[in-house]
Design a protein that fits this description.
By secondary structure, the protein is α/β, with parallel strands linked by helices. It has 16 helices and 7 strands.
């Protein structure tokens, strides 16, 4: 089983390297997923925060594909299952161990099942039976699987639940509340259909290799994730606490319900955002995560508007798409354009001269110029823009 002991405290240089590694992993997972980069990035955010994610959207909107790709890039054990009304607990948690049963003990075989997964995806999560959801609740809360005589510490970094819509049954409210972060997705906009069709013709990125059926971590991806998670637990939050409290008061006053548990645990998302930005001290730059704790798409939009001035300068070097979508800040847009431009330039250098590659570079250059006046161009974009101009200039 994966070692889940607390890693030693990482020095700042290692923390930045780990954040950059996870940023690259998430970028690779999101490549070719049109308008689903935010889902991929929030999976990583929640894995570092030690929280769970709920993705809500219509069927066929690449919810499972986004999670599958992140898990494939991170390596480790991945468990995925589509729940239904008649799903038995054994289908998720493993069958009864017959040898133990013959000896009078009720234990379970968990190899390859959810209790031993590093990352899990449960589709139609609210359709599970009471027996399934009650067992799952304990696993999500404590990272311990208890059933019969089996008590097993789980290496689960993050469980992603998906649903076509939020449940209306009040009895499911307590279970749904265990998924702190919410991402709501819609079908790709008409304006990006050509991009969607083109992406659909390209193969998915190759997952991390598996050796003999067991998980491998060839360049320390899970190790980096665990070091970031340990740094997030020790992240300095005192300086940002007054701003965080003010933000939560504003949300409640605006009609965004934030219970005590969600308020307390929102700090974990703030801390995770900070360490993924390469820092051990949280600042106002990290408050863009707060709309994620709003429980519906409408209240999430309301939260973003309500906190506009507090998160207007938020950004994140690793989670560029998520930070921009949730904050709508120019700083976040600059970070995203800088990373996108650098990736496009790297791809362009490795490709033969071609029209398609130049068109992508030109599109990135147009987006930079449309978003920022020359006098206001952020420092992060100055060099990237100059390289793009050189790359698209007639030879």
């Amino acid at each position: 089983m994966t070692d889940t002991s607390t890693p030693a405290e990482a020095p700042p240089a290692v923390l930045r390297q780990d954040a950059e590694l996870i940023a690259g992993v998430v970028a690779a997972a999101g490549r070719g997923l049109v308008d689903r980069e935010t889902v991929a990035e929030v999976v990583a955010l929640c894995a570092v925060a030690g929280e769970h994610l709920l993705v809500v959207g219509p069927p066929g909107t690449a919810k499972s594909e986004a999670v599958r790709r992140v898990a494939g890039q991170l390596g480790g054990r991945y468990f995925e299952y589509l729940l239904g009304r008649f799903t038995e607990p054994n289908e998720l948690f493993g069958p009864v161990d017959l040898r133990s049963l013959r000896e009078g003990r009720v234990e379970f075989e968990t190899a390859g099942m959810l209790p031993e997964a590093d990352i899990a995806f449960l589709d139609e999560v609210f359709l599970g039976s009471t027996a399934v959801l009650n067992t799952l609740l304990g696993l999500l809360n404590e990272r311990v699987f208890r059933r019969g005589g089996t008590a097993l510490a789980s290496p689960l970094r993050v469980c992603v639940g998906a649903a076509n819509h939020l449940p209306e049954d009040p009895a499911l409210a307590a279970f749904a509340d265990r998924f702190l972060a919410r991402v709501f997705v819609d079908p790709v906009a008409d304006a990006r259909l050509e991009e969607l069709l083109e992406a659909g013709r390209r193969p998915a990125p190759a997952p991390v290799a598996l050796d003999g059926g067991g998980p491998t971590d060839p360049d320390g991806r899970l190790g980096a994730l665990d070091r970031l998670a340990a740094a997030a637990r020790d992240c300095e939050l005192d300086g940002v606490t007054p701003l965080l409290a003010s933000a939560l008061r504003r949300l409640r006053a605006a009609g965004v319900p934030v219970g005590d548990r969600r308020a307390v645990r929102s700090q974990r998302l703030v801390a995770a955002a900070a360490v993924l930005d390469g820092r051990t001290v949280a600042t106002a730059r990290d408050l863009w995560v707060l709309p994620l704790v709003a429980s519906t798409a409408d209240t999430q939009a309301l939260a973003r508007d309500t906190l506009g001035d507090l998160i207007g300068k938020a950004a994140n070097q690793s989670l560029t798409h998520a930070a921009e979508e949730l904050s709508r800040s120019s700083a976040a847009r600059a970070e995203r354009l800088a990373r996108t431009g650098a990736a496009l330039l790297a791809d362009h250098r490795g490709l033969p001269e071609g029209r398609d590659s130049r068109l992508r570079l030109e599109a990135a250059l147009r987006e930079i110029d449309a978003g920022f006046a020359p006098a206001d161009l952020p420092a992060a974009l100055v060099g990237i823009r100059a390289e793009l101009v050189t790359a698209v200039a007639p030879s």
